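Task: complex structure prediction.
Instruction: return structure tokens for all chains below.
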Amino acid sequence: MDRSKSPEPHEPAGIYVHIPFCKRKCPYCDFYSITALDLMQRFVPALKQEMTLAVAELSRFDTVYIGGGTPSLLKAARIDEIIDTVQRLFPIMPAAEITIEVNPGTVTAAELKDYRNVGVNRINIGVQSFQDKNLKFLGRIHTAHEALKAFKMAVGPALIISALISSMQSRARPELHGSGIWKRPSPWSPNISRPIR
Ligand code: SF4
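Output:
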């Protein structure tokens, strides 16, 4: 094992918590997630139990990242339980960055505010594209309008970042290169200009 890039004992590190549930599986996605949402209720207690078994070899952590999957399928009360358990069991620094990944098709303004109230200070919105044709191609559950709405709703409650996909058609459908049905990828610039505006 190459330990050359391992953090020094005194360097803060990050904790990643995976929430492995999605409303629907996007065809391009390699992340582990399942659509058996009836298991979500049992998942949080099991996750908390597993955290008690983990041993933190590092002395402190300056980031907690709740990713997925679709963590925003969990209500703020469940996210609160997770953050509380992490903070109780691991040495989390007082000004730690606490992020949740949000799917624009699963949140309201009130829920984003609730996440903020339980300690989330950074929201990663899985926009992927601000163009409906691209979102449809990707099999996403939300529209461009919903993506923009989530982006605007999150501006107040917390620092936001937005996940976008570039060159999606060439990556997702390489077999179409050179064929009659290959079309030029949608321009990338609208995806950048929409959130900036
Ligand atoms: S919502 Fe995200 S994690 Fe879930 S299947 Fe789609 S890309 Fe993957």
